[in-house]
Write a structure and sequence with these properties.
Three copies of one chain form a homotrimer. By secondary structure, chain A is α/β, with parallel strands linked by helices. The first copy, chain A, contains five helices and 40 strands. The longest helix of chain A is centred in the last third of the chain and has 12 residues. Chains A, B, C: It is an enzyme of class 2 (transferase).
Chain lengths: 369, 369, 369
């Protein structure tokens, strides 16, 4: 991949979004879908089944919306073969309509094209290297020995520290911070406000005195926290997506690692030295404490937590706001918490929970292992 | 509203805060309150009942602080008529002292005045329009076709993407990101680090093969995530407030919507296509998953969660750290979770919870519906 | 402390990281540790027991890693005397090996040195004062009457509002926002995306009409939120550390306070007028609601919550994702929640929880106090 340091020039940020028109037959051909109905129908955008207008393409994946088929104004609907039997309009038949829709919709996405070049208002260390066809927006800082590879886009206000790599085709949307030693694979998408490579939360309680490693003449003083230097980096695999305001700490000694195709929603916290397997997805506000290891193809629900130093095997689902307090060795779905109730009922049941052990003993409950 | 593109000029950011002095009689007159005591007492600021000094105004709303009335040094106290009977100082009587205090305190707020104009260090797309009397601070980017309306203030380091509208009288304090297609009504206040309009978390698992919409010659490969394009925007009603580091994703196809006067605290996550009714307030770290619909005048407690595609009717209170897993059709207060206990007791009770169903069956419990 | 306003000049951001080599004997001498084995062994960096290479120093603190001692390639290992008895390599004996390692590792930390000076691209109010030997990076804004003291480092993209103080030796890594009236003590370290001093979440529901403090001719209208002005500041003690994307709101009237040596991880929310005692540490995603008061030497687990206006005494441990709903008067460990289970078992037990009070009554349970 040819990369070079580009002279600082002011470049236009965006060009006008393209508009595209395709016939249903063209879409069927392009995506390997079966066409039902009029292949000449034109499509210039997408909409929901309920509100799409003529000229728009919609999809039906969730059976609960099937009744909307009769009224939809969408010109073309992507659906399963089963659902098409009594549909009089134009349909594209897909085994997985949501996957097909994902591909189709990308055709109509007015994603702004960013011209290659480096905005005049950037602050780039002389030892950093930016590929010729990369885009670096306004008010971006890039630190020593860092590298921005082919076709990458660094949006306005990003800060890239020292010794970082932004791989080919990556996009840092805006206001993203890579603190130090953060290496992104190819096509990684990082949303605004995400912070990768901040120091992990490593603290030792210094109780003073000799032989703790303090100077021999340490004043006794009161016990206080000693920061444990955080020296590792962050390694992000190809095709990962990192949500807005998500934080991924650098490792203490070795790296924090996300394998390829890991998908993190917004406001997620990943502690130092965590390792997340390929294709795992985590929903908003979930958190993983230091040195935990999560497998491949896991789904971690919103607001769920994983304690430190645990291992979770492949294909584990953790439901929303559950807390994982021990390693999980078997694939499957796991939960904690209690159901939502009206507050009055909840108070009564919660009061009983406080006495549950005593109650079970009184009523002759065996002590469970 | 007359708006125009303003030439780039360097402007001073702030002027000196004003200082104001009012007599108790003037305050009573201005806010329609009943005066008890000496109307000539001068007030130049506000304080707490416990620590206010002479010249300051305090308030008494929570009965538990009533005992502080006897010792307060505040020159004027806002309170209910009931509380004033044995108070020898100067009082302003209000039916709702906290509301009255909110208005009174605003008189003394040293909110910096920002001179109209655009800082020299901004990067504004030629197609963007900024009102003459708007303020745009240092290191701000504004994208194509975006509009900043009369009297709005864009603080330093904000990024406004393409096709956004910042309504009249809005304030983006600092470091706020509006990614794309974000439209704010009038007088919306957005605190630092908030990200509006980032992509929603839309993913389809592509298992490969034909008729999923992939190219017919798709290599089998291993199943992987496919990003579903996020094409919608974010629509924020008048008088909303968005807390620091809060995230509101753009809709997948249609918009994510906050109606007027919605108040979001810090670190909140709002998923794509969520709809929040007017006057609803959400406390810090709460989260709403995609396509959920929350009614008007709801109160969502700190750290609470709402799963996707649910509906919550008007006037629902969800207590802190509760998880809403089904739609709520009746106004009222709802909770989940268990009470806090010392860890030893908690462990015993929690162990019993794991065996609760077995225990109930053993002791002849009926299976509940 | 001599401070002065420094002329705007462009300065290089970093110098090359130092590399250091020490013998085991030098390290023993410097840190007051007992040497076992060959004092001439050279160390130039640190590693984990499992993966360290020759020339690296590792540590053994957690007994579960003791078996790794036999295979380690580390040239020197820090450990307790007990663990050294059957170790044939070079050891440094410490009473607390983790504390000793924290000090030792700092020797090898390639922390970039930042040259004193102010980057050319900053926007600094004329009334602000920056110490001669402070470093102010690119795209930084500093507001009126603010002060940056000796040796402080303000990284790229930080926004410092009006009336703030950044004490001697502080570091704001990058993209940190101090909104207004935020005063940091000495050696405070603030990670990227943190927002200190945003408005607290103060709202009063204005139901309209006279004697609420609204104008006497208030239109009836519908009840709506009234913002309560937030006039206080934030006061952060010496040696505090504030994590990435953490938020600490300014007080409503008085200050929000963190005493010395408080350590906050990432994504934490601290409400207005909270007071946190010295040496308390809070893990990621925890939250404290307004006016709560937390003691000294507390440990708040990840995702845990503390409701408003509560008091927690010194030396309290709250486990992860627990919710504190009442004041805690006794030191100790506290928890709430339920254990993680496979989802099928959890559903059965959770359904029983909804009927727990009824069940206990039916089976003759006494009503607990």
């Amino acid at each position: 991949m040819p990369t070079t340091s580009v002279p600082t020039t002011s470049v236009p940020t965006t060009s006008v979004p393209r508009t595209s028109v395709y016939s249903a037959a063209q879409l069927a051909e392009r995506f390997g879908l079966v066409l039902h109905g009029d292949g000449a129908v034109q499509v210039h955008g997408v909409g929901t089944l309920a509100r799409a207008e003529a000229g728009q393409l919609a999809f039906l994946a969730n059976p609960k919306y099937r009744s909307q088929l009769a009224q939809t104004s969408a010109s073309v609907v992507v659906m399963r073969a089963d659902d098409a039997s009594d549909f009089s309009g134009t349909a594209l038949i897909a085994r997985d309509p949501y996957v097909a829709f994902a591909r189709l919709a990308a055709l109509f996405e007015p994603r702004p094209r960013h011209a290659p070049g480096i905005h005049a208002s950037t602050d780039i260390d002389p030892s950093a290297v930016v590929a010729n066809d990369a885009h670096v927006g306004a008010f971006v800082s890039i630190g020593a020995r860092s590298r921005v590879e082919a076709g990458a886009r660094i949006g306005p206000g990003c800060v890239i520290g020292d010794d970082c790599v932004v791989g080919a085709g990556c996009e840092l949307v805006a206001g993203v911070t890579l603190v130090a030693r953060v290496r992104l694979g190819q096509r990684v998408l990082v949303h605004p406000g995400a912070v990768l490579g901040a120091d992990g939360f490593g603290l030792a309680m210094d109780r003073g005195g000799v032989q703790t490693g303090g100077p021999q003449n340490d004043a006794p003083g009161e016990p206080h926290w000693l920061k444990v230097p955080q020296l590792g980096g962050v390694l992000i695999g190809d095709d990962c997506e990192i949500g807005a305001n998500t934080t991924i700490d650098r490792g203490a000694i070795e790296d924090t690692v996300l394998e390829a195709d890991v998908r993190l929603d917004n406001q997620i916290q990943i502690g130092h030295n965590v390792h997340i397997g390929a294709h795992t997805a985590m929903a908003g506000c979930s958190a993983v404490a230091g040195s935990a290891r999560i497998g491949r193809y896991c789904l971690i629900g919103g607001g769920a937590g994983v304690l430190g130093h645990l291992e979770i095997c492949d294909k584990v689902v953790v439901t929303a706001m559950s807390l994982v307090t021990a390693s999980i060795r078997e694939p499957g779905e796991y939960s904690s918490g209690t159901p939502l109730m009206d507050n009055r009922s909840w108070r009564k049941n919660a009061a009983r929970f406080k006495q549950l052990d005593a109650f079970v003993r009184r009523t002759g409950g065996r002590r469970e292992p």
